[in-house]
């Protein structure tokens, strides 16, 4: 085993009873506590904790902050909780529920289902009194319904044109 430090180093390479093959064989006690030598590491500094100042502790006087009269426990005041109840809107946004059911069944099923979901979310937002959310969902339901109706009309026109073309050819 090579030495990591030169021979003049104050650090030993390994303890005397250390066997690198068997790590449990060395029962070496730690070195005893020694006060630092003057001029060594930490010279000129106080070791340990500084002395703490002593405070005079007087008995509590009744009526003074933190004292309880006649040994009664201190009263704890708890403020009541605040309950917020939301009421339905006075002028609710239109939810287009009937329009959504029509477009779902007669025009375009996937877009009609999405419009139906937004219609139900509009109704829920109206019931809890959230005007901004109701407006947003109402607008989305209307756009989806118009889109589904447009797709349904286009499909109907193409289908009628195909039927006329097939009958005209025969």
TrEMBL record:
Keyword field: Membrane, Transmembrane, Transmembrane helix
InterPro entries found in the cross-reference section: CD225/Dispanin (IPR051423), CD225/Dispanin_fam (IPR007593)
First-listed, main subcellular location of the protein, grouped into a coarse class: membrane
Transmembrane segments: 96-122, 143-169
Subcellular location: Membrane
Region (Disordered): 1-31
Cellular component, GO annotation: membrane
Similarity comment: Belongs to the CD225/Dispanin family.
Name of this protein: SYN1L protein
């Amino acid at each position: 085993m090579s030495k990591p430090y030169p021979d003049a180093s104050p650090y030993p390479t390994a303890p005397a009873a250390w066997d690198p093959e068997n790590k449990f064989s060395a029962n070496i006690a730690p070195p005893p506590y020694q006060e630092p030598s003057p001029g060594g590491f930490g010279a000129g500094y106080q070791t340990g904790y500084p002395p703490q100042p002593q405070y005079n502790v007087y008995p509590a006087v009744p009526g003074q902050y933190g004292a309880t009269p006649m040994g009664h426990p201190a009263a704890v005041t708890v403020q009541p909780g605040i309950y917020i109840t939301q009421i339905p809107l006075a002028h609710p946004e239109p939810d287009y529920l009937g329009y959504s059911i029509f477009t779902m069944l007669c025009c375009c099923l996937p877009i009609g289902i999405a419009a139906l979901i937004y219609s139900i979310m509009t109704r829920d937002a109206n019931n809890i009194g959230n005007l901004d959310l109701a407006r947003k969902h109402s607008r989305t339901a209307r756009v989806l319904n118009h889109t589904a109706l447009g797709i349904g009309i286009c499909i109907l026109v193409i289908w009628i044109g195909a039927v006329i073309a097939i009958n005209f050819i025969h």
